[in-house]
Amino acid sequence: MKVLVAVLVLAAIVGGFLYITGTFTHSGDNVTINDTNKINEPMTPTERREMKVAVTAFGDGESIPSTYTCDGADISPQIEWSGVPEGTRSLVLIMEDRDVPKNLRPDGLFVHWILSGISPTDRAVPEGGHVGNVGLNSGGKAAYIGPCPPPQYEPSEHRYIFTLYALDITPSFAVAPEKDIVVAMMQGHIVAQAQYTGRYKRQ
Questions:
Q1: Cα–Cα distance measured from residue 84 to residue 96, given in angstroms and rounded to the nearest whole number
Q2: Which of 26, 31, 44, 95 registers the highest number of CB atoms within 10 A of its CB?
Q3: Where does the chain hold its CATH 3.90.280.10 domain(s)?
Q4: Count of CB atoms within 10 A of residue 18's CB?
Q5: What gap in Å lies between CA 67 and CA 73, rounded to an integer?
Q6: Are 202 and 158 contacting, i.e. CB atoms less than 8 angstroms apart?
Q7: Neighbour tally for 149: CB within 10 Å
């Protein structure tokens, strides 16, 4: 009897080990578990679908055409994106200048554009238009305002960062929000983000 019990225990241990390591096959129920079942393992870079954002009028890190600045038509550029993760409820786009002289703005930032509540099915913002809801720029207006770095201050060439956020919520604001309100709303709800940089120096 003791021998039989020992054999049964050993069989159970071996069976459990084979199940856990993914080599157990139960043909009677047509169930097969093999090493392709990588439950809870992190995806490799090739398996992960990364969100990307791009401004069609210029390359990442390149100069912004004057059409989209205070020296031109001052209209917003066309922006496209891809790789929005499953489960995304909405998108937020923020464009800001991070090279503002501290004597002009202590935080060194100027928000040029905020779009929130963008549908996860949207894939672009048309030139001169918008999707979702427009937030307040640093000039206090719910609109796009193009690059206009003051040439009398250094650096004379500024960086303009376009950041796209994928959220697991759909925000709702009673009035056009400032950046701080949008950022506070996003805390703990960002599932992916992507950036694109433009530069501009007035002639």
A1: 22
A2: 95
A3: 52-201
A4: 13
A5: 5
A6: no
A7: 23
